[in-house]
């Protein structure tokens, strides 16, 4: 009898635990209704809970560690961009000085399903300092040092808006593997995206930078910084509009040096550069010793459009036009290089009948040996168009 009672009690306990688990999966913790502060709500959250923050301005220095949760404004449920603007996480800027720490610090033991979504994040030394693999989406980053500072980890950085941050919009350090897509990155003081290729051996790290608008940044649009030895990394830069950079649209540096001097470093890591539009930058592409550069438009560069892209690099099916100098220390394929006005409209799309239409090459055959699950973006007509955006079907 005692044995039966024991097993019955175990069964009841297991049933209660399962019920609690199901409840925890859908639990919503509201700030300030359930907890006065956001940090208290984070501390109380169980795995897969949602911490939902009401509109307002919150002076915070938040920490997420060793749990999986969604930290969100009401934009999560409303889809209203006004909820992003109205829910402000402020790191404590006073009289133009940055706060001492990050607005949000994400520790390396944080669960991969964690999301931070729907906030205006401002006035931190970093906006988000992230050492884990998480999703950061639908946020506005204003007046931080680095807006997002990845210290390892990575994940997805999607549909965010970055403006007037005092250093880089996105800074990648250490062993990062991140997809940075569909963001607007503009008017930041330093680089739009800065990636340091620190020494690393292990499972290959893939970073994808695609479909972003990187505009008017104070140094490079994208800067890649090499260190000694070849690291186990693959970088894909695809479908971006990079315009008005004060220095290079895409600049390669080495020896850990981030101060852009257009040295066009011979970075040995494999880099794919597909279907980007680089306009009105001081320099276009500088450096790279193992790049595949195809289907790009590089136009109205003040100095050199393509400098020092050499070694094992391949440059094919690109349009170079109205640059101070088209190339230096680089060898684009003359048979497939177009030197004509791309005739882009104000949205960076080719106008009807313009040279980029159907002038590209399918990308999947070029990349599949290194990235077998690569999904080529759809295109109309016989071949892809050059540049970041396809011409509208009606105007082809």
Contiguous low-pLDDT stretches (5 residues minimum) are 1-24
Round the mean pLDDT to the nearest integer and report it. Answer: 92
The CATH superfamily is identified as Single-stranded right-handed beta-helix, Pectin lyase-like
Name of the CATH first level: Mainly Beta
Oligomer: single chain
Task: Report the count of strand segments.
Answer: 32
Radius of gyration: 24 Å
The fold-level CATH name is Pectate Lyase C-like
Give the N-terminus to C-terminus distance in angstroms. Answer: 82 Å
Content-based structural category: mainly beta
**Which descriptor suits the 3D outline?**
globular
Q: What count of domains describes the coordinates?
A: 1
Beta-strand content bin: 35-45%
Number of helices: 5
Please estimate the helix content.
10-25%
**CATH architect. name:** 3 Solenoid
Largest sheet composition: 21 strands, parallel
Question: Could you characterize the architecture of this molecule?
Answer:
The chain is mainly beta. The protein has one domain (46-352): Single-stranded right-handed beta-helix, Pectin lyase-like (Pectate Lyase C-like, 3 Solenoid). It contains five helices and 32 strands. It has helices at residues 2-25, 38-44, 75-78, 81-86, 364-367, and strands at residues 28-31, 49-53, 56-59, 62-64, 69-73, 87-90, 102-106, 115-117, 120-122, 126-130, 133-137, 140-142, 146-158, 161-163, 170-181, 184-186, 193-197, 205-210, 213-215, 222-226, 233-238, 241-243, 248-253, 270-274, 277-279, 283-286, 291-294, 297-299, 304-307, 314-316, 319-321, 325-328. The strands form two sheets. The protein has a 21-stranded parallel sheet that branches. An eleven-stranded parallel sheet has the order 3-6-9-12-14-16-19-22-25-28-31. The longest helix is centred in the first third of the chain and has 24 residues, at 2-25. The chain is globular, with a radius of gyration of 24 Å. It starts with a helix and ends in a 29-residue tail after the last helix. The model is unreliable at 1-24 (pLDDT under 50).
